[in-house]
Amino acid sequence: MRPEPRIQIICGNRRLGREYVREFHRATESFHLQPIARLAGVRQSGAWVSIFLLDQSGVDGHSEQGLKCTAVRLAKTAPVIVVAAPERQAGLTALLTSGVADFVARTGNFVPVAVGLVERRIRLARMGTLDFSGGVNGGWSADFGEILRHEVNNPLTGILGNAEMLLAGRDHLPASAIERLETIAHLAVRLRETVRRLSSAAELRHTG
To answer: Whole-prediction pTM value?
Structure first.
């Protein structure tokens, strides 16, 4: 029997921390959860961790540099899901492009998105497409269709959903913003369909 993935939730906001825990309990996966209010608690626990969920409220001072340093330090141990204000994403570019971290903007209904990313990483690790350090394993090509769906198609669906949500309030948006959002939505639909075709073709080739 394989052990449950250990998730450390670093969140300094008690109400939000409880919300993360509730969402994990609703997930299809089963997790061993370890809520921690501050980074000091991570150092004290000393336990092996599958994934860190780092909410910006768990970083002392909530500063951009503090968030970056914390995320980089945690990523040396396990993948990190960073949940922070949208403007903090730019400062984490190098970490995000390395594949050891994901970013969730702290706007709207962001808690299910963050938990969903944790589930995705656990699922891919179990499939053998990712190890727990975020790297791609050598046998990934056999599951290329699955990788496309999870790594490309799912984020595209999120982009499309956000664009459509913003367009729902078009009465309050300038014409230029509406035009750009419509373009984003149109391109996301086209790319999503392309990914679906490539994914299906890859799976047919593999099963054939």
So the answer is: 0.61
Helix or strand holding residue 189 (H, E): helix 175-207
The Cα–Cα gap between 25 and 47 comes to: 21
Helix, strand, coil share of the chain (percent; to 5): 65, 15, 25
Q: Say yes or no to pLDDT of 131 above 50.
A: no
Q: In which residue are the tokens 């995705």 written?
A: 120
Give 173's contacts (C-beta < 8 A, 6+ positions apart).
166, 167, 181
Mean pLDDT, the chain, whole residue set: 79
Q: Are 37 and 65 in contact (CB under 8 A)?
A: no
1 domain-assigned: no
Beta bridge pairs of residue 6: 32
* Structural domain harbouring 145: 139-208
What is the CATH number for 70? 3.40.50.2300
The DSSP result for 158-181, as a single string, is HHHHHHHHHHTTGGGS-HHHHHHH
Both tokens of residue 144?
């290329």
DSSP characters for 67-103? Answer: HHHHHHHHHTTS-EEEEE-GGGSGGGHHHHHTTSEEE
Looking at the fold, whether 44 and 109 belong to one and the same domain comes out as: yes
Tell me which H or E stretch contains 123: helix 110-127
Nearest to 53 by CA among 90, 106, 4: 106
Q: Name residue 105's beta-bridge partners.
A: 84
Report DSSP state, residue 131.
-
How many other CB atoms sit within 10 Å of the CB of residue 195? 19
Helices first, then strands: H and E counts in the chain = 8, 5
